[in-house]
């Protein structure tokens, strides 16, 4: 059977099958075609649902493609199979290929194998995009040429199809991508947190957590791992199964270990250089989980030789991605926060920990299989009322019964009205759903924008 090294040595000699035709799948097709190998596509969706540009490319290049399902023979005819992140790995055709000894790798893993520059990789249940973006901006602020992509923005193979003019790659990496990343070995691997998520895909929470830890699997002692010292899931698993990389920490307490803490409104870097380094945090980054994200990004950038001056300058002006614990406005002494990106229980718990006001929580949507009990501590301590929407509202009402007052709403707009009527001066109305958005909205961004419009409309009522 053909291994990845053999394939990379002479790609034109082999047949490659791409499974899944999304953004990363299209990038894989174009990359493999440029390498000269015989490429094919297998896609479960019907042909009319495919992107028009993809269909045109397939026709122009005379690439074999099957749609509306997968053929076992197509999979067994390949020497290498490249899977898109959303493709279920238990697919019967993939299982048959695996049993036949055919190399199976993800689009991300294939790209990483060809990448020839240092890599900073970021994963975690929550905060990945913010931290990836911030590390990229810190390094760019120091005059470095940086590619920022992976699970956000530009797929890795799209970068490899271009000029490849970066000197550092900062990559957001999902658990799905780590599942098929092969021998992925980042120079710096950042693990932000682990809490229940994507249990509609993984068989158990343990399986999901193990996927996140794969970011360290191929690192060596001269590589670096940046790890959350406050996350018991991470610290417990690393204590049970130590990693090879040198570990740096961020959190409230380092226990004498090297890394970053927040003290007196500043990030303090300890135990790494001859003196402590201190970086002023702007007000909007002082609230959890923003402070943890800033600590992790600062630490990763600093070990990549980002100068102190550049870190201070970029932190002062950094703008977080939208829909992440963003203050929308204040009306009659009530603060309204858009945290629509909080699509899992860990993200909501983290948001609640950062709130210093009584909270009216708007939550609900499409259930992702997480344990709502993970939020119980935050709900008891901070939430005076919940307004629940979407498919999961009955399940959530049962989970939080007796912890706080609960009301149902049939739409997000109705939920905002009910929350506003219940709120008193000094309260916060927080949209932090703990669920996917696809039962009622096109995306979490659509949900967040609808929330913001509903809040601004309160001024007209």
Topology diagram in text:
Elements: H1 4-9, E1 15-19, H2 23-35, E2 38-42, H3 52-60, E3 64-66, H4 72-76, E4 80-83, H5 92-99, E5 103-106, H6 107-114, E6 119-123, H7 128-141, E7 146-150, H8 156-161, E8 168-172, H9 175-179, E9 188-191, H10 205-213, E10 224-228, H11 232-240, E11 246-250, E12 259-263, E13 266-270, E14 277-280, H12 290-303, H13 308-317, E15 326-331, E16 334-338, H14 345-354, E17 359-364, H15 376-382, E18 383-389, H16 393-400, E19 405-408, H17 412-422, E20 428-431, H18 444-457
Parallel strand pairs: 1-2, 1-4, 2-3, 4-5, 6-8, 6-9, 7-8, 9-10, 10-11, 11-12, 16-20, 17-18, 17-20, 18-19
Antiparallel strand pairs: 12-13, 13-14, 15-16
Helix pairs in contact: 7-12, 7-13, 14-15, 17-18
Kindly describe this structure.
By secondary structure, this protein is α/β, with parallel strands linked by helices. It folds into three domains: 94 residues, Rossmann fold, CATH 3.40.50.720; 203 residues, 3-Layer(aba) Sandwich (UDP-N-acetylmuramoyl-L-alanine:D-glutamate ligase), CATH 3.40.1190; 135 residues, Mur ligase, C-terminal domain (Protein-Tyrosine Phosphatase, Chain A), CATH 3.90.190. 36% of the residues lie in helices and 21% in strands. The chain is built from 18 helices and 20 strands. It has a nine-stranded mixed β-sheet with strand order 7-8-6-9-10-11-12-13-14, covered by helices on one side. Helix 14 packs parallel to helix 15 and helix 17 crosses helix 18. The radius of gyration is 23 Å and the shape is globular. The model has no long low-confidence stretch (mean pLDDT 96).
């Amino acid at each position: 059977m053909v291994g990845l090294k053999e394939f990379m040595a002479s790609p034109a000699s082999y047949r490659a099958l791409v499974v899944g035709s999304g953004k990363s799948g299209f990038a894989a097709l174009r990359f493999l075609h440029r390498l000269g190998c015989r490429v094919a596509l297998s896609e479960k969706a019907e042909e009319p649902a495919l992107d028009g540009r993809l269909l045109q490319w397939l026709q122009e290049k005379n690439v074999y493609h099957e749609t509306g399902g997968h053929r076992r023979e197509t999979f067994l005819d390949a020497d290498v199979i490249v899977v898109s992140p959303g493709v279920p790995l238990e697919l019967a055709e993939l299982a048959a290929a695996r049993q036949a000894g055919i190399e199976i790798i993800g689009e991300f893993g294939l790209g990483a194998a060809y990448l020839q520059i240092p890599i900073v990789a970021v994963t975690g249940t929550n905060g990945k995009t913010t931290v990836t973006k911030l590390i990229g901006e810190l390094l760019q602020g120091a005059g470095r040429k940086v590619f920022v992509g992976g699970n956000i923005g530009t797929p890795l193979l799209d970068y490899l199809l271009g000029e490849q003019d970066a000197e550092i790659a900062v990559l957001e990496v999902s658990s799905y991508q780590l599942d098929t990343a092969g021998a992925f070995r980042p120079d710096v691997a950042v693990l932000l947190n682990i809490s229940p998520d994507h249990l509609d895909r993984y068989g158990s929470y343990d399986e999901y957590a193990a996927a996140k830890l794969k970011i360290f699997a191929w690192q060596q002692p001269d590589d670096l791992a940046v790890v959350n010292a406050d996350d018991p899931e991470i610290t417990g698993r690393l204590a049970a199964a130590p990693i090879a990389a040198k570990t740096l920490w961020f959190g409230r307490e380092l226990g004498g270990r090297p890394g970053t803490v927040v003290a007196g409104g500043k990030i303090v870097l300890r135990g790494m250089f001859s003196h402590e380094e201190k970086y002023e945090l702007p007000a909007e980054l002082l609230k959890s989980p923003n402070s943890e994200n800033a600590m992790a990004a600062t630490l990763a950038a600093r070990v990549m030789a980002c100068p102190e001056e550049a870190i201070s300058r970029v932190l002062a002006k950094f703008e977080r991605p939208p829909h992440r614990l963003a203050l929308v406005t204040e009306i009659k002494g009530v603060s309204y926060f858009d945290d629509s990106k909080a699509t899992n229980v860990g993200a909501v718990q983290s948001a609640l920990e950062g709130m210093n006001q009584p909270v009216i929580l708007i939550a609900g949507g499409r259930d992702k299989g997480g344990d709502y009990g993970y939020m119980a501590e935050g709900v008891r301590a901070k939430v005076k009322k919940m307004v629940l929407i979407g498919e999961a509202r009955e399940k959530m009402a049962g989970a939080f019964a007796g912890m706080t007052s609960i009301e149902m709403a049939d739409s997000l707009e109705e939920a905002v009205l009910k929350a506003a009527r219940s709120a008193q001066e000094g309260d916060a109305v927080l949209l932090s759903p703990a669920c996917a958005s696809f039962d009622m909205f096109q995306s979490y961004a659509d949900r967040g924008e609808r929330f913001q419009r509903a809040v601004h409309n309160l001024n007209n009522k």
